[in-house]
């Protein structure tokens, strides 16, 4: 049990009157806690393989990484059937482009990509690509498209996000470098809040359905997995052959 719910719950609680607002010191603290937790796993040669904001829990105001159902020990021990259960919007482009049979070919840099997406979500307050269907998410990621950096994001933090979600795994930083940069940003950045306006498409959904913004995001969460996408893609290919 986590008394603060998931990270996604926590970020949604900061949305009011069409705006998301978070203290910079809180954002950096959460980013460092997630990074430190991931570093602990990587130090033990474990890749999580399924990092997203529903797998980060807030307990006593501390962010904790959970759900190791498909984690993988790089020495060969794997929990769960396959990393194809991972959530598409947080998955590196290599996994979106590969067939399901090759989806296990991941390493620590795969987690770094997901970490970068989480860093972006801390600034936006909403899940990545939350307004897109899973097929569009996969093709966008595989073709190099990323979410837009939120306007008032400090430059150093924006560069960190972009380096973490680089299409080239070799360009993604190691976690010790990520922590060093977060520590630097926590002392050198003077911004007080990060504020993001919830986009108009979500407002239209809200007006048409009379449901809350929270309900919009909970019903449009990017929860499609790689295996589900691969299955639909294979069905589509089979259909084309029949024609």
Automatic annotation (TrEMBL):
Record SUPFAM superfamilies: Protein kinase-like (PK-like)
Chain ranges of the Protein kinase domain: 1-194
Gene3D superfamilies cross-referenced by the UniProt entry: Transferase(Phosphotransferase) domain 1
Gene Ontology MF term list: ATP binding; protein serine/threonine kinase activity
Protein name: 25692_t:CDS:1
């Amino acid at each position: 049990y986590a008394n603060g719910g998931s990270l996604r719950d926590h970020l949604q609680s900061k949305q009011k009157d069409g705006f998301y607002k978070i203290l910079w010191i809180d954002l950096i603290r959460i980013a460092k806690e997630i990074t430190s937790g991931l570093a602990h796993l990587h130090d033990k040669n474990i890749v999580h393989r399924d990092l997203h904001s529903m797998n980060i829990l807030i307990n006593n105001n501390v962010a904790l990484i959970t759900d190791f159902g498909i984690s993988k020990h790089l020495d060969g021990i794997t929990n769960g059937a396959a990393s194809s259960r991972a959530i598409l919007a947080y998955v590196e482009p290599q996994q979106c482009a590969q067939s399901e049979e090759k989806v296990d070919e991941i390493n620590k840099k795969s987690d770094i990509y997901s970490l970068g997406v989480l860093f972006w979500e801390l600034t936006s307050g909403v899940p990545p690509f939350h307004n897109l269907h899973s097929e569009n998410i996969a093709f966008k990621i595989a073709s190099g498209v990323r979410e837009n950096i939120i306007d008032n994001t400090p430059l150093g933090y924006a560069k960190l996000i972009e380096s973490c979600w680089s299409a080239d795994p070799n360009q993604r930083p190691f976690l010790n470098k990520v922590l060093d940069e977060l520590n630097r940003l926590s002392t050198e950045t003077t911004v007080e809040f990060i504020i993001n306006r919830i986009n108009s498409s979500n407002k239209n959904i809200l007006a048409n359905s009379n449901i809350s913004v929270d309900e919009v995001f909970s019903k449009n969460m990017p929860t499609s997995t790689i295996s589900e996408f691969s299955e639909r893609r294979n069905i589509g290919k089979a259909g084309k052959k029949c024609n």
